[in-house]
Amino acid sequence: MRTFALIVAAGRGHRAGGALPKQYRKAGGQPLLWHSASVLSAHPHIDGVRVVIHPDDRPLYDAAVTGLDLLSPVAGGATRQESVLNGLESLSDLSPTQVLIHDAARPFLSARTIDAIMASLADQQGVLVAIPVVDTLKRADGGLVRSTVDRENLWRAQTPQAFAYQPILDAHRAATGQNLTDDVAVAEAAGIEVGIVEGGERNFKVTTEEDLARADRILAPPLSPRVGSGYDVHAFGDGDHLWLCGVRVDHDQGLVGHSDADVGLHALTDAVLGAIGAQDIGYHFSDKDPAWKGASSDRFLQHAFGLVADRGGRVQHLDLTLICEAPKLRPHHEIMVARVAEITGLRIDQISIKATTTEQLGFTGRREGIAGQAVATVMMPDAPPGPRA
Known about the structure:
The protein is of the alpha/beta class. Helix content is 29%, strand content 29%. It contains 12 helices and 18 strands.
């Protein structure tokens, strides 16, 4: 027995949004096509995998399947049925006995499902992976319900759909021009009996942007909370304003620092860096480096957020307390929260900014400067992110 798999990836698939056909959109850091192809090519009972692609997509295809051992791709046709026929014809020189036909946009095919297909195909010429309909079905017309459809013996078709090679090739040749919706329909038209293997809800087809987001969530590594703290101080000096949380605040003094001396953003930056173990703000932006002279501190906080994203995490919440006797910060509260949200991309409800005094005690009580202390809650992967089948 020689078994091959065809992956149909010639469609445009723009209902999922984005500029790329959906089979090249990424979930879990890899294109949908990569997930489908990696599972099929790794299965011990499949002798080769060929992908049917749109003629214009060869660069996208090459980038998507890097590192996988696949047969060279073949160009598809104007319809799915034409594409499958092209793929089947291209396998003829390889003397296949059986073929599995799979949609590239079903990234969650499991080895267990393939095993069940192969076992069933040993006894019949065709096998459909499907799941029984459990919802009540209604037939509607003109926006009104007209009848209830009996759901007994109804199944939702999935892929792969598997067949003895020569019968399904002959059936596709005979069905040319009919534009049937799947390969089992082609087999039915040719009188091929098709058995059923029960699939699962996880083997869903990515069709919309919501489906793509669902796939990405499934493939994403589990995240765990981490907490980092930050503390910063800047002394008052000459000036007529100061910067706090990215907002200019008029005052009869400024804050002294190598950059813009934004004590709020500096404390927040250190808190985020602390949560991921990435040292402190001075390590990344040395006060000995003239490049950061007078720099706007929003760049520092955005850099810290970028490091979190690069490691597969996300910042969940920021909490900042500013400690000073003056200036009065309550009038600036809403605009400071809004500015931090703008810098970070967080929602307003993920940001807390508070102000307090030390009841005239200590250096802040003597109005010698401003202190800021911050806490960042960051969700990080339990393991470093990477390709997941």
